[in-house]
């Protein structure tokens, strides 16, 4: 699981991301553009906790209408804003596709059928069910009825049992302790990896406390997911990336070695807008996400740089690599897309997803109970933790806390450029140090020049540093 909100430590300008920082230099790092990017998520998290029955889409709309002022938004909401018809997330039949259809003079050669071209629109949600639509309009592909029915049910039953002891991740937001709006646990392949997770890996400032080993069923399904995802990756490369993997995408087969398992118990449980952390996955990561139980909407939206210039630039993604899917030229593309994830569907988040899109599972106004799971949805995200991104192989700042890997998404300048930064500000009792350096990778996404830069190797952050959690 990945951060869905991040505590914002200090407010400063992001001007240091304008290219003045040499790649190997450790330098002062004012608050980065990413924390600006996430401040909307922080605001949404605060609003969600104050107004738990209002869906995130509505909160975002009203927040934007109030120029990002949380207090003013909250006042409006307290004045009992009537719900807009059609707002929120139900799994009711879509009524909206037609309004998104535009005629296309020349048929899209990638389209497998003569279907109308669909566009997401700002402020509106495009609902997608069909695998061909999903593959054309998002950086994801979906396989319905992925496992043999009995295997899916048996895995679901096992994970429903496991999930009884899952916990909400709590984390510190300003001076408050906030809970993630769903429960989860993290699974790895062996006891040794479990120990490493507990003693070497750091998530938003602390170690995970609930780490388990993959059950035999999760292992068996992992092998199936691995095979399918590798097939989908090749298909994607051929059909969408012009036959060549993306710059920084690993050319090696995707071999998942860990999984976050999430449980959403009832329609209100959710996960806010986020991109999955790349710190341990590396750039251009691929994730295989299996859904079981209740159907929920998985929402995606493109990250549009706020730089006006970008909207008019036909090629804003100077360094996103060949085939990078960033065609931000149309501001309407900022609209949300809802991918409906039924029981036993495998969603592949491809290499163009995390850096260029955000995703969420929004609260639903209604759900159709599942015969085995009742109101619950289980989601397993299989991930490949790359050795080159093990904390022992990545930079460490003077304060001794492993740095995190982020990407510039807000400003056109340096858009798509990766950087390492200190995350100690999320550790209780620690102030973020000022570590910042641009990250460099070879064409296959392996880190370059890290060793020379390791400032001070202290012992790894351990469990006994008081835990303070954000959603994974
Ligand atoms: O529940 C899902 O489908 C997505 C979960 C997710 O985004 C995550 O674990 O990072
Ligand atoms: Fe995620």
From TrEMBL:
Domain CUE: 39-81
Identification of the protein by name: Fe2OG dioxygenase domain-containing protein
Keyword Cytoplasm on entry: no
Record-annotated GRF-type domain positions: 397-442
Fe2OG dioxygenase domain location: 255-386
Compositionally biased intervals (Low complexity): 20-33, 312-331
GO biological process assignments: DNA alkylation repair
Compositional bias segments (type: Basic and acidic residues): 453-472
GO MF annotations in UniProt: dioxygenase activity; ubiquitin binding; zinc ion binding
Source organism of the structure: Chaetomium fimeti
Secretion signal, residue range per the UniProt entry: none
Disordered: region residues: 1-39, 305-334, 446-472
Pfam assignment, any one: Zn_ribbon_GRF
